[in-house]
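In these records, each integer encodes one residue's backbone shape. Here is one protein:

___
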Amino acid sequence: MFEKRIRLFKVFGFEVGIDPSWAVLAILIAWSLSMGLFPAQYRGLSTKTYWIMGAVGTLGLFFSIVFHEMSHSLVARRYGIGIGGITLFIFGGMAQMVDEPPRPIAEFVMAIAGPISSILLSLIFYVTVSVGLVSGVPGPVAGVLLYLAMINGLLAAFNLLPAFPLDGGRILRSALWAWRKDLKWATRVSSRIGSAFGVLLILLGIFEFFRGNFIGGLWWFLIGMFLRGSARSSYEQLLLRKALEGEPVERFMNTEPVTVNPSLPVADLVHDYVYRYHYKMFPIVEDSGRLVGCVTTRQVKHVPREDWSRRKVEEISSACSEENVIAPETDAMKALSLMTRTGSSRLLVATGNRLVGILALKDMLKFLSLKVELEET
């Protein structure tokens, strides 16, 4: 998820971005506010005013979701839990956790921080609009503030449902974890409850659809599908993390990688390497044995076909960096997180400036499949 997210800004060291699907949600919300909610509640205003209210309300919702997820992220940092960034998408927002919480209390505090922040925002907006009405604030301003107070209250209430991976589901998992001292069992139980809630929302969506509420029914159905899928994938991610944690990448890497010379023409790279070995990335090694970078099929695609015979691999390559090179002793889970963040399925494994292997995602998955098959009950 979120491989194609658009990075917006950084706040408190956390990168905030949006998935392209957020644009769909933003348009739907702005349209429903401008053409439905605000005209019904505040009659007699101009169309332009309704659209301004809708746009401001949508921006306020954006701020509210970022504020909610930022609360999770700040608490996570306090407990040493890595956060890969905050992403807004069509069903809301998510603070992307790099690690599992170290203990139940960390999970509880991190999970409860989100709903508390939303309740706090709801109260702030409600008090502001109450004071504003007394002092004669314009109706459109009061309308937007009242909407933001309501939506933050709903955001807190929905996230408190005991459906993993919602905040309420994480609170439930922390309680089960503290009780049985078994994170895997707690995750399995809370994930099943989350999946059951997803099924209930799907059934509610179908019911609303047959009642004639097509838009509302569709949304409940989609949210239910998302919640059910997220609950299942969250448990699978835990199994993945537990299986790979502590395993160095040297256990999976190919110690005899196919390399190319910096002076190799792009045409030869394509015909003699890409079409022969079917890899999307090749390490570039000089005659002296020094690793200087890598070249990918993505970079080749940016070179016009007629220039392939004139351009050299070194002209289009990527230099070695923390984005594509890891050490042999690197934890496999960290390598997998790097692959997820960069969208690459192959990483260079090097000691100093010497290539010692290539780490491929498929090799890690083969190991994972065997380990789960042999060790999981």
Summary: The domain at 249-375 is CATH 3.10.580.10 (CBS-domain). The CA atoms of residues 111 and 167 lie 5 Å apart.
